């Protein structure tokens, strides 16, 4: 890596086969090849509003040391915060590019200087990680139940992309009293399956075995499109 001090404020990443310089403050991407020099990177740092806000905040913290110690014994975990952000994005159904918006970057940096906002690609990976963690928790929970399950399958159509999906969910009586529903998966299906109102036996069998509920199943219901 180049010895230029400018690289203290950029990360080198391989994106779509090209070396990119990614600003540590605002996540903007620039040509990162050493053949292109670093003048364009230095120019960006002079204009980067997020960097300026961070420097202003650090100056204020140095002037008021009592503010700097407000965290006390709190241990900041950047990775945990990233996963919390991924959960928030999915629950609020926010667009993934919100993490690269300058206003969001400024807001986050003012809250916690040590938090590094993720790129869209990192956010996608974090969302998948959260999904796998939550899936494992649900699998373990369902495994502790002694009741039977009813599998509910319902077709969903995305009018924008014209794709068809099937939502797989289970219903069961929690503690023998409360009817409870948990979504297991949302899978893309062929339009022919949608029009025929059927799903292949192998598709359903594979899902039941994946969730280890094939021996506890008491009924299967296929509902019309939502």
Q: What profile does the largest beta sheet have?
A: 4 strands, mixed
DSSP E strands, number: 7
Q: Mean pLDDT, nearest integer?
A: 85
- Secondary-structure-derived class: alpha+beta
Helix content: 40-55%
In what order do the strands lie side by side in the largest sheet?
Answer: 6-5-4-7
Q: List the secondary-structure elements in sequence, H or E.
A: EEEHHHHHHEEEHHE
Question: What is the overall silhouette?
Answer: elongated
Radius of gyration: 24 Å
Number of helices: 8
Our measurement of the CA-to-CA distance between the termini, rounded to an integer number of angstroms, reads 54 Å
Uncertain regions spanning at least 5 consecutive residues: 63-70
- Binned strand content: 15-25%
Give your account of this protein's structure:
Keywords: Metal-binding, Nucleus, Transcription, Transcription regulation, Zinc, Zinc-finger. This is BED-type domain-containing protein. This protein starts with 9 loop residues before the first strand and ends with a strand. The strands form 2 sheets. Strands 6-5-4-7 form a 4-stranded mixed sheet. By secondary structure, it is of the alpha+beta class. The chain is elongated and about 65 Å long. The relative contact order is 0.09. The longest helix is centred in the middle third of the chain and has 25 residues. About 4% of the residues have low confidence. The protein has 8 helices and 7 strands. It is 42% helix and 24% strand.
């Amino acid at each position: 890596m180049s010895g230029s001090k400018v690289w203290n404020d950029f990360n080198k990443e391989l994106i779509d086969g090209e070396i990119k310089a990614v600003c540590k403050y605002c996540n903007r991407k620039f040509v990162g090849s050493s053949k292109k020099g670093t003048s364009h990177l230095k120019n960006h740092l002079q204009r980067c509003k997020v960097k300026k806000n961070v420097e202003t905040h650090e100056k204020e913290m140095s002037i008021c040391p009592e503010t700097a110690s407000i965290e006390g014994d709190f241990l900041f975990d950047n990775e945990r915060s990233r996963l919390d952000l991924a959960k928030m994005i999915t629950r609020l159904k926010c667009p993934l590019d919100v993490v690269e918006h300058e206003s969001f970057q400024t807001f986050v940096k003012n809250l916690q200087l040590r938090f590094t906002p993720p790129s869209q690609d990192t956010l996608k990976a974090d969302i998948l990680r959260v999904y796998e963690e939550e899936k494992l928790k649900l699998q373990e929970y369902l495994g502790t139940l002694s009741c039977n399950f009813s599998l509910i399958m319902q077709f969903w159509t995305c009018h924008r992309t014209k794709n068809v999906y099937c939502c797989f969910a289970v219903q069961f009586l929690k503690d023998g009293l409360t009817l409870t529903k948990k979504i297991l998966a949302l899978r893309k299906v062929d339009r022919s399956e949608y029009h025929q109102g059927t799903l292949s036996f192998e598709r359903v069998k594979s899902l039941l075995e994946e969730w280890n509920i094939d021996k506890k199943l008491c009924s299967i219901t296929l509902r019309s499109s939502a």
